Amino acid sequence: MNETVTTYALYLVIVIPITIWVARTLHKNGRVFLVECFGGDQEMADSVNHLLVVGFYLVNIGFVTLYLKLNVLVENTKGIFEALSEKVGVVLLVLGAMHFFNLFLFSRVRSRGARPLPPQLP
C-alpha cells in the first residue's frame, strides 16, 4: 500500500471516531441546555437534540469525505504525518466552529424566550 492510501486510511480512522465522540458528547450534555431553551418542554428538547445530532453527522461526515483528497504527493512517513496534521487540524477546527455556532444560535433562542412578550393589541 502506498503512502497516499495509508494517509487516507489513517485520516478516516482518526476523524470518524472524533466526529462520533463529539456528536455523542454534544447530544448527552446539550440536553439540559435545550430543555431550558424550550421552556422545560423535554419532549421538544429531545426531538431537537436528536435532529441536531443527525444534522451534525451529515454535515461533518460530508465535510470529512469531501476533504479527503490530498493536493500533494505523499512520499514518506514524514509526508504522512504532515498531511494528517493538516487534515485532522482543519476537521477539528470545523467541529469546534460548528459547536460554537450552535451555542450562539441556541443562546439567542434562550434569550428571546426569556424576554417578556409585548402587550397584545385588542
Strand content: under 5%
What profile does the largest beta sheet have?
A: none
Distance between the amino and carboxyl termini:
75 Å
Low-confidence stretches: none
Radius of gyration: 20 Å
Oligomeric grouping of the chains: single chain
How many helical stretches?
3
Structural class from helices and strands?
mainly alpha
Task: Describe what this molecule looks like in 3D.
The protein has helices at about 5-35, 40-65, 75-115. With about 120 residues, the chain is an all-alpha fold. It has one domain (about 5-110). α1 packs parallel to α3 and α2 (about 40-65) packs antiparallel against α3 (about 75-115). The longest helix is centred in the last third of the chain and has 38 residues, at about 75-115. The model has no long low-confidence stretch (mean pLDDT about 85).
Write the layout of secondary structure elements.
Blueprint: H1 3-37, H2 42-66, H3 77-114
Helix pairs in contact: 1-2, 1-3, 2-3
